[in-house]
Amino acid sequence: MIRGGISILIATYNGSERILNTLKAIADLSIDGLPFVELIIVDNASTDRTAVKAQEYWESLDSVFPIRILNEKNPGKIHALQTGLKAIESEYVLICDDDNQLFPDYLKTGLYFMEQNQSIGIIGGQGILEPSLKKPDWFDAFAYSYACAPQAPHTGNVSPHRNVVYGAGMMIRKEAYDTAIELGFQFIMSNRKGESLSGGGEDGELCWAIKMLGYEIWYVENMKFYHLIPGMRLTDDFLRKLKKGMTKNGPYANAYIRVWKNEIPEKLSNFWFKEAVYSFKYLVLLTFKKNGLADFQRAKNVLIVLLIENKRYDQKIKGIREYYAKCKQKNIQL
Predict the structure, then answer these.
(1) What is the phi/psi pair of residue 70, to 5°?
(2) Is residue 194 helix, strand or coil?
(3) Is cis: bond before 160, omega within 30 of 0?
(4) d(CA 226, CA 7)
(5) How many Cβ atoms sit within 10 Å of the Cβ of residue 160?
(6) How many angstroms separate the CA atoms of 318 and 170, rounded?
(7) pLDDT of residue 249
(8) What average pLDDT does this structure show over 63-89?
(9) Domain 2-231 bears CATH identifier 3.90.550.10
């Protein structure tokens, strides 16, 4: 492992146009005094020559640190991230989306906090809507879902305000991730593929995998980046699709919390069915609630997921619980 080294990891699908601004910002990062920095781009089954264009543009920038291009033909961001993480030997990994523009001091700030506190497993930064973009009236209320909001009141452990941070701009202690994999951690949420809005829970699962090991999840307010959100994603129609896509993983996001708090029964036989019955009863109650349309839609989507997943839901819950048990046995001293 390269002590103090940082690998910037970008997983991209057909990002040949939007990634150029991202690369320019990465090339402008302040890296003086840093032991090692590299850029890794994982091309996730792109059809627009993303890898070739990115390589050519990076070389034109005369950056002082190397680039590696990896290919992951299996569609899905989780697969692309796993390919990149497996290839990294740096002590730290920074996940940068292909539409993020990191502020120049992003790496140095993140490294400072990681080095000062060995109990930190993951740090999240603050995304900011790129100033030239016109935001809708509703945007501020949903800014977190767009990775464009503070993640805690101030710098520090995000608990008890939340348990996870968003994946854009996330810095990971690689040793923590490697330990999670060694103990059998597996992603269980649906995988976001291409431009699909379904799934996308890999950032939260990464946080839980490392949190269950005993590490802390932090937010650092001075780690900032611009988020270059395409105009078509700032529409009412896109917001509806985004919210619907996010609910697909809702039951599993809640499952991590319930396993953590030991709120799930020991016997899991037909647990999914009991959860579905409870969801249905809750759904009926919501039909009589005024101004409860949003809650009704959310509850309906949860019920649909449970009915589709059925026994797979029980198996995945069992997997989370078994992994957490191994984490406690590992008893990492931080």
Answers:
(1) -115, 155
(2) coil
(3) yes
(4) 20
(5) 7
(6) 28
(7) 81
(8) 94
(9) yes
Identify the CA nearest to 226 among candidates 171, 170, 168, 172: 168
- Domain coordinates of the chain in residue numbers? 2-231, 251-330
Residue-wise burial string across 92-108, b where 16 or more C-beta atoms lie within 10 A, e elsewhere: bbbbbbbbbbbbeebbb
Average pLDDT, stretch 125-138? Answer: 94
Give 8's strand partners: 39, 94
Backbone angles phi, psi at 273, to 5 degrees: -65, -40
Give the whole-angstrom CA distance, residue 50 versus residue 80: 14
| The token pair that represents 54 in the structure block | 């990115």
Residue with the two structure tokens 């699908």: 13
Tokens of 324: 């957490």
- Cβ count near 190 (within 10 Å): 20
Q: Which residues contact 172 (CB under 8 A, 6 or more apart)?
A: 92, 93, 94, 95, 121, 122, 206, 210
Confidence band for 171, pLDDT divided at 50, 70 and 90: very high
> Which percentage of the chain shows pLDDT scores above 70?
95
What's the N-to-C CA distance of the chain in angstroms? 19
Pairing of strands 120-129, 216-227: parallel
d(CA 235, CA 258) in angstroms, rounded, equals 34
The predicted model scores a pTM of: 0.93
Q: Which residue has the higher pLDDT, 54 or 196?
A: 54
And the tokens for 145? 């879902």
Cα dihedral angle (152, 154, 158, 159), rounded to 10 degrees? -100
Q: Cβ(327)–Cβ(183) under 8 Å?
A: yes
CA distance 249 to 186: 15
Largest CA distance in the chain: 63
Q: How far is CA 127 from the centre of its chain?
A: 13
Helices (H), strands (E): how many in the chain? 11, 9
